[in-house]
Specification:
By secondary structure, the protein is an all-alpha fold. The chain has a domain of 98 residues. It is built from six helices and no strands. The radius of gyration is 20 Å and the shape is flat. The two termini are 28 Å apart.
Amino acid sequence: MKLAKKLVLAAAVLPLTFATASALAYGGQGDHHGKGGKGGDGQCGGLDRKVFSQLDLTDAQKDQMKEMRQSMKSDKKSKRGENVEAKMAQMQARHQKMQDLVLADTFDADAANALASEMVAQQTERRVKMMEKQHEMLSILTAEQKTKLKEVQQERMQKCVTKMESRAAKTK
């Protein structure tokens, strides 16, 4: 495969990978649960309700969290219905551009770079919005709770790494 085609393929795969990772990392929203299912240990360092339950939140903080989650959920629902046709058309146009680039007799690296840059910019925008929402939720925590959160996330990440290493060892 030529370098330019590899770049286009990477440009297509990377945003999808990051989107999946960010969706799994955010956790705790809606009816979706990590790989472990409801109550399972599928989240690796994410911000789900299980993590917040270990932080000894006050009743006021719990109420604020609940309001924020409900607000985000209703925002997501209201945005889901907006401009569905326009979003679908944009997605189909981007897919068509990618198909045209990959199937062309000669490869246009400039057009591929422009398309990849557009996709990266959109992914970056989504990630920034997600981080902003996380910041908003974490801003209600005290300094001690933030320290505890870091510890809990580190423990969960270590468990995840250990689990991944054991799975990798089994496949060898």
